[in-house]
Design brief:
The protein has a single domain, classed as Alpha-Beta Complex (Spore Coat Polysaccharide Biosynthesis Protein SpsA, Chain A). The chain contains eight helices and nine strands. Strands 1, 2, 3, 4, 5, 6, 7, 8 and 9 form a nine-stranded mixed beta sheet that branches. Helix 2 links the parallel strand 2 and strand 3. Helix 1 runs parallel beside helix 2 and helix 7 packs antiparallel against helix 8. The N and C termini lie far apart (39 Å).
């Protein structure tokens, strides 16, 4: 089914924040609380629920009154996975910039204010993409700050994104021009989109502000499957089979080492 984009106007918000959820009633309130606490309120919230069988949709509705009526949307219906849900959010987004937050992720209170300041730093030259820092939280609650990697936005086929997608803000129009997310991916769809956007020579802003707490775990930490999908994304973007296979092998070795450390009770390297 083709994606139908909604038109935006000058009165639309600066940010569209999309949260894709399914059966995460216990985690969702923390993410919503972090949005209510933002010092910059120039955003809309779009929750795409994949027909949860628990109280996820009811939890979302319970928070509805904490947001302006025109800035809250909940869609609850079956979907084909997280990237289908992302595309549904993209189709409904009215903000000039787009970001995706997980149900177990938490924005820092000044996150959107920091991104807005980066956007307005040069009023005559608005950026296409803003990448910030993020905290990685492990299973024991330990946090490690990760700074954005500007070099990954300058390479033709970088081995990774310049930051996690939770700390990445993109012009909504550019994501639409790229066609949104490819549903053939289950894990690396954000990386595939990043590779498809690179040839457009985006105007990047990199900030060291910590924007979000990212919880380890979930789909993207099925390391072997992630390595395989990254390889496929690089092949699709024009990487040679040899180069893609070397990256795949390196990622598999990293996954094996991570599992070995876990078995020995050592902390995972962040």
């Amino acid at each position: 089914m083709p994606i139908i984009w909604l038109k935006t106007s000058m009165s639309d918000p600066l940010f569209s924040i999309v949260i894709a959820v399914r059966n995460v009633a216990a985690e969702l309130s923390g993410a919503l609380e972090s949005l209510v606490a933002q010092t910059c309120a120039d955003f809309e919230l779009i929750i795409i629920d994949g027909a949860s069988t628990d109280d996820t949709a009811a939890t979302a509705r319970a928070w509805q009154d904490r947001f302006p009526p025109a800035r809250f949307m909940l869609v609850s219906e079956p979907d084909y996975g997280i990237y289908d849900a992302f595309n549904k959010g993209l189709a409904r987004a009215c903000g000039r910039y787009l970001a995706f937050l997980g149900a177990d992720d938490r924005y820092q209170p000044t996150a959107l204010a920091a991104v807005a300041a980066a956007i307005d730093f040069d009023p005559d030259n608005k950026p296409d993409a803003i990448a910030g820092a993020y905290n990685v939280i492990d299973a024991d609650g330990h946090a490690a700050k990760k700074l954005p990697r500007p070099e990954f936005a300058m390479q033709r086929l970088p081995r990774s994104m310049p930051t996690n997608h939770q700390a990445l803000f993109l012009r909504t129009a550019l994501v639409r021009q790229a066609g949104g997310f490819d549903l053939s991916y289950k894990i690396a769809g954000d990386y595939d989109l990043f590779l498809r956007l690179l040839p457009q020579k985006l105007d990047w802003r990199f900030i060291t502000d910590t924007l979000v707490d990212f919880q380890l775990g979930g789909t993207s930490y099925a390391l072997r499957d992630t390595a395989r999908e990254y390889r496929n994304a690089k092949l699709t973007a024009g990487e040679s089979p040899l180069g893609a296979d070397l990256v795949y092998l390196r990622n598999l070795i990293a996954a094996s080492l991570a599992r070995a450390r876990t078995r020995r009770g050592e902390p995972r390297t962040l």
